[in-house]
Design a protein that fits this description.
three-stranded antiparallel beta sheet; Arc Repressor Mutant, subunit A; 14% strand; 53% helix
């Protein structure tokens, strides 16, 4: 595999790893290259990102690598945060919100078990939009945070109580079959789009 392709895959891995980041050893294992090669790939990417026409950089904390924005652009990101939220939520955020709405209180790990993929970013998105909130901690090992919907969730979707949520298909509850869940999420998304409003 050529260096450019390896760099492209490594960039995708850094992006996909999100807030958790990724280590050189993990990159080695995924790309099936020696550590020296992986380190060379990262160093080349760091050099590429140093150009003024690039908006990202690789940050290293201990052994973990993160893809992040450049600090010199921070004033623009503050403006983005201050803008009214007029964009619709991603499918991943809607799916995560649906799970929380019907299964609350629920932990991040339990959400991921249902979705089958990591859900750090969707959960963070929902927290930042105040649609969900921490409701306590589960009395198990590690005492993980429990999430539930907020008052803003009801307001955003034009509901007066959780009892007004669209009925959940029984098959999705009993079997938790992927196809049934997908149908449910699609239905939830459609109904929420009908009830939601752009701010």
């Amino acid at each position: 595999m050529e260096m450019d392709e390896l760099k492209a895959i490594a960039e995708g891995l850094l992006f996909a790893s999100g807030d958790e980041g990724i280590t050189i050893k993990q990159i080695c294992k995924i790309l099936d290259v020696p550590e020296s090669a992986a380190q060379h790939i990262i160093e080349e990417m760091k050099y590429d990102y140093e150009r003024r026409d690039r908006g990202l950089m690789i940050m290293q904390s201990h052994e973990v690598l993160h893809l992040t924005t450049k600090p010199e652009h921070s004033s623009y990101f503050k403006k983005l945060i201050e803008l009214p939220q007029a964009t619709r939520m991603s499918q991943a955020a809607l799916e995560t919100l649906a799970i929380i709405a019907y299964r609350q209180p629920i932990t991040r790990t339990e959400i991921e078990e249902i979705r089958g993929v990591k859900s750090d970013r969707p959960v963070q998105t929902l927290l930042s939009r105040s649609l969900i909130e921490e409701t306590g901690r589960k009395d198990t090992v590690g005492r993980p945070v429990l999430f539930g919907t907020s008052k803003d969730f009801l307001t955003y979707f034009g509901l007066t109580s959780l009892g007004e949520l669209p009925p959940l298909p029984e098959a999705a509850v009993v079997e938790e079959d992927t196809k049934e869940a997908d149908l449910f999420f699609e239905r939830f998304s459609n109904e929420m789009d009908d009830n939601s409003h752009d701010e």
